Amino acid sequence: MHLHRYEKYWLYFGIGTLIVFLSVLGVGAFAMGQYPPSHDAVVDPLNVSETPPFDDPGLVQIDDQTYVANIVAMTFGYRPNVIEVPAGATVIFEVTSEDVIHSFTIPGTNVNMMVTPGHVNQARHTFTEPGSYLVLCNEYCGAGHHYMQMTIEVIEQ
Amino acid sequence: MIAKVKAGTEVNPSDAKLSMAYIYVAFTAFLIGAIAGVVQGLQRAGFIDLPAGINYYQVLTAHGLLLALVFTTYFIFAFLNAGMSKTLGAFPDKYRKTGWIGFLVLTLGTVLTTIMVLLNEGTVLYTFYAPLQAHPLFYLGLTLFVVGTWVAGGALLAHYFNWKRENPGQLTPLFGFMTVATILLWIVATIGVAATVLLQLLPWSLGISERVNVLLSRTLFWYFGHPLVYFWLLPAYMAWYIVIPKIIGGRLFSDSLARLAFILFLLLSIPVGFHHQLMEAGISPFWKYIQTVLTFAVVVPSLLTAFSIFATFEITGRAKGATGLFSWWKKLPWNDVRFFAPFIAMLTFIPAGAGGIINASHQMNAVVHNTLWVVGHFHLTVGTTVLLTFFGISYWLIPVLTGRRLTPSVNRLGMIQTILWAVGMFFMSGAMHLLGLLGAPRRTAFTTYQDHPTALQWLEGMFANQATMSIGGVILFIAALLMIYNVIQLAFLAPKEQTEFPIGEVSSDASKTPPLLENWKLWVALAVALILVAYTVPLMDMIQNAPPGSPPFRPW
Fold first, then answer.
1. Domain count, chain B
2. Which chain B residues are closer than 8 Å to A145 by Cβ?
3. Looking at the complex, does the CB of residue B543 fall below 8 Å from at least one CB of chain A?
4. B538 & B432 share domain
5. Are residues B1 and B89 in the same domain?
6. Which secondary-structure segment (H or E) carries B340?
7. Cis before B131? omega within 30
8. What is the span of the domain harbouring residue B237?
9. What's this model's pTM, rounded to 2 decimal places?
10. Domain Cytochrome oxidase subunit I profile: where (chain B) (predicted)?
């Protein structure tokens, strides 16, 4: 099939740009470990409150600067609904739902993940600045969806 | 203005009736959906409270379903049906009858679903994610909707393949070719949503099965949900490729490139659903990345289209005597709404497409996922690129079908309508994009999250403010009412006269189209192979490593 000369240049430029974009994303993911949240742990959504660690949700310190936050999302809130971490701490969030689909989203950070019932999703973030961080649900979960929130209080050491 | 046709009709009158039936339903849904849209926009900014216990999410469900699904689908079938009758000849009686059966099943499904939404029995938004559970009749309505489109699409396919049999060795008309690509894409894609509704959600809502595999249902939904946007876009591309060259008094740049672009859309728009699921558990990053690559590949046919269309503009302008680098620009018919509305649509597609690349990016999606940014993107692509093109089509299609003419006053109102739409969308979608970058969520009623400072800044910005969004919505609503007025003029009140159905001819120096492009068996087989590559392993994984399923919830 005949392609006009200018059209060829246009397509070379376009396809070349795509290859660059995809390479950046691919190197970021597979060489530097910047994956989107894709955890594969599962849990029975009806027995979340009896299944460790979600029977006792909250913050667990695992080393000097690292914490795991086990959080349960439900209509229309999170358990617990406030956690306190020292500035500079890295928090690994492990979140599951005991009913419908929610999200766990901290505006202003890269923590933004879907919480589907039956799965435990995971994201991590290092809180360098002290302050009150809002966590909200950005997946419609019913009539009280817009009330669903919690806060992360990052306090000066 | 368009050439007047002296004798005979452009579209067989019996076929025109079916197309007009689609048009009536389309614009009725458009009006109700637009009312739901403006009400919801005002609530979201905190300007009004919804009266009579109406739930914000109920109005949101109605807005999404009526505009994104009902208006688009009905309009597309009106356009395809009329264009097939024009380019391939009148439908034989049996196919026309099949077309009507499709219309009736589709409409039964639409009415049933709309009633359940209005009764607050289907407040599950337009994505109906399990384990939110709607009334069984809501799912039944959706099923009838899909089956109706299959029957109606079957009539279009039958007409095309019948023509092909009767004219062996001939190149099929471009309009028919593109219609077949569009309908095939739709049928292959809707198999996913039909599977989740029929095998998962309907039995579960009737109590036959107790629990549902949530991740599987989401995956089947998005297997359909992304190609759905190409089902909206391809008819707009058809108008750009075939109709616009005629309206500006030129010829189509290249027949074979147009066909190649449509084949690429058929191949590449289906195996990409994971880019809507980048932020969720249970799918490995590797498979998410594979589908990101395939998503990006869809840019290639869009680039082909952009080149082809602007080449047509330039060649036409030069043929009309333009010289110099850009003076052909002035030779385009800027005062003709049939050109102006689709042109604004094309222009909008440039930022809209760029935003799409951001949404589909493996990790970058975390910044914008489920924020107002996505809603802004959606209103640029579907709400402007597709809709303004469809409005542009309406300005000649309705007169063709009703035997009336586009009067200068409706043309002028159409220009105003287009400008209002663009301005309204600039404010609404612009504010949505910025608010999304600041983290404001989508699909959320008015809230300040207990006056948290992060949420309050969404109400305080100069431009990035939920009030700006809502003002844009009001301008859009005025434009929508003007459109309804124009449609009524063209359907019932404009003077009687035959109007020409504009079908562009291929440029005389374009090369011959290779017959390979019309080998549908090959393209469908390739499409299926790509789908199997992209989905087999992750789907098996979702079934084998599934958590215990979910019972139903109705938290509204």
1. 3
2. 57, 443-445
3. no
4. no
5. yes
6. helix B337-360
7. yes
8. 180-247+249-308+533-556
9. 0.95
10. 17-541
